[in-house]
Amino acid sequence: MKELQHLNKYFLKYKTHLILGVIITIIARIFLLFTPRYVKQIFVVIENYMDSEVTKTALKSELTEVILFIIGAAVVGALLTFFMRQTIINVSRYIEFDLKNEVYEQYQRLSLNFYKKNRTGDLMNRITEDVGRVRMYVGPALMYSINTITLFVIVIIYMVNASPKLTLYTIVPLPILSVIIYKLSKEIHKRSTIVQEYLSQLSTFTQESFSGIYVIKAYGIEPQTSANFRTLAKESKEKQISLANVQAWFFPMMILLIGTSNLMVVYIGGMQYINSEIESVGTIAEFIIYVNMLTWPVATVGWVTSIVQQAEASQKRINEFLKIEPEIKNTSTTEPHVDGNISFNNVYFTYDDTNIQALKCVSFNINEGETLAILGKTGSGKSTILDLIGRLYDIDQGSITIGGTHINNHHLTSLRESIGYVPQDAFLFSDSIKNNIKFGKQDATDEDVIEAAKNAQVHKNIIKFNKGYDTVLGERGITLSGGQKQRVSIARAIIKSPKILLFDDCLSAVDTETEEKILKTLNKISKGKTSIIVSHRVSSAKNADKIIVLDDGKVVQEGNHESLINVEGYYQNLYLKQLSETTEK
Ligand SMILES: Nc1ncnc2c1ncn2[C@@H]1O[C@H](COP(=O)(O)OP(=O)(O)OP(=O)(O)O)[C@@H](O)[C@H]1O
């Protein structure tokens, strides 16, 4: 239960609801417990009539009175049971909501390295399955425990009052029932976890097949994919059947044990009545109702124990994850002004997970309002430089300053707010084009969105869609071409009008003519801002104030277009190659 103590703060938050729920549960049980006593009363009244102690009219009026009481108690009991669920189950939903938010906020705080080390499926599980299991502890387990305790205490008092001997015989099978249900619940849990794993494997498999359907069709490997799916589905079916086999035992066991208890009541109660140890047959009827009332709560003891164990394991996983500190921490309490002067001084950086040293002694300066172009072979470290400016990773050695302030002394939020970043893979959300562009500036007006789209040279494409800017993208909507995606992604970055603009090879999928137009407008709108353009094309770099060429994480060339085309090296080769390609066309 140690791990579940994390939830105490939530119990405290909703204490009023919880206390009310507990009180309502107790009162509801008391009302429901009137029924067996009134049923006994019916037998007593009839017995009295048979013994000619009361008249037929008196019998009728007494029976009517008792029946009305039974109906009244049942109605009040049912109403209170409704409110019991409304309070306690609702609290469990509130706590589930709070916990999901807490987990999600932690996801947002954690650095990129965390995401590389954990599989998406595991991360999803924590926020859905684990939180769901914890909710079962907060809601049903708590409610059934209060229910069982109240019912047990009151019923046992009533039973002992009526006949201690009969009580003893009737409750003997109940602990056995509890233990059996506990063992069954554990086995069910074990098997359903395996079933869940298979289900998630199946959904990952199908999801990947749908996403990669182009590749599957292009290679004509549909039969092979279907065969793989069938094998996985067959294994999943076998696990489901094995789960169903255990689940099938649940109710027969319950029926068997309830039946045994009922038999005991009838047999022992009957003997006691014959020996005049109990005054009325009504006591037997009363006991039969008690036994039936007790079996479900007693069975839930086993079930609840297993729920609590599962919740404990899930909360442990959640707690371990909540304790993780983000590797990139905001240490600044002030918010130093972020301007566009960026300077890298002998920066070394190694990726933790692959141990690849992506940058080796990289130094360069860029002043506010200037444009820097970074070129170099694939894997030479260009994107890494952009990631470091956004402080997505901390460097190993050297320093990075922005506006003269060490990057670590900048407030993380204001630093990132000052940057407009266009990644290499333009990621767009399954939402409208308008919202995808506004993502960069939530309070942007429609006019701002249109202007940004115009500057990114994508406005004309958007208005050709039937729904224009309201066209939905992604799984629920249309698919944009690679170049259109890149331009929407550029519009998203420039709408913010940030101090620093980072373009990571984001014009690779547009033709050179559109590239020219975009670069021209970018040049216009980035006046006074610092821009860094990563590219494989000389055409993207030639107008930059400064160009650096990277090779294997090192700066091997530095200058501007005019100076670099005149020295032998990567830039000149690239320039000549691309020049001959354009003249050949
Ligand atoms: N997230 C990462 N985790 C581990 N290693 C990485 C990661 N990103 C890049 N690397 C490695 O770091 C090196 C530099 O990669 P980077 O993406 O900066 O190169 P790049 O010059 O931008 O390449 P490209 O032109 O192909 O985009 C490569 O060897 C790459 O494999």
From TrEMBL:
List the SUPFAM superfamilies: ABC transporter transmembrane region, P-loop containing nucleoside triphosphate hydrolases
Ranges for domain ABC transporter come to 342-577
Cite the SMART domains for this sequence.
Answer: AAA
Q: Which organism is it from?
A: Tamlana crocina
Keyword entries, A-Z: ATP-binding, Membrane, Nucleotide-binding, Transmembrane, Transmembrane helix
Pfam families per record: ABC_membrane (PF00664), ABC_tran (PF00005)
Subcellular location per UniProt equals: Cell membrane
GO molecular function terms noted in the UniProt entry: ATP binding
Recorded topology in the membrane: Multi-pass membrane protein
**Upper classification of the organism:** Bacteria, Pseudomonadati, Bacteroidota, Flavobacteriia, Flavobacteriales
Please tell me whether the keyword Magnesium is annotated for this protein.
Answer: no
Give the PANTHER family listed for this entry: ATP-BINDING CASSETTE SUB-FAMILY B MEMBER 10, MITOCHONDRIAL (PTHR43394:SF1), ATP-DEPENDENT PERMEASE MDL1, MITOCHONDRIAL (PTHR43394)
CDD domains xref list: ABC_6TM_TmrB_like
Q: Per the database record, which ranges form the ABC transmembrane type-1 domain?
A: 19-310
Superkingdom, natural source: Bacteria
List residues traversing the bilayer.
12-34, 66-84, 141-160, 166-184, 246-267, 287-308
Give the protein's recorded name: ABC transporter ATP-binding protein
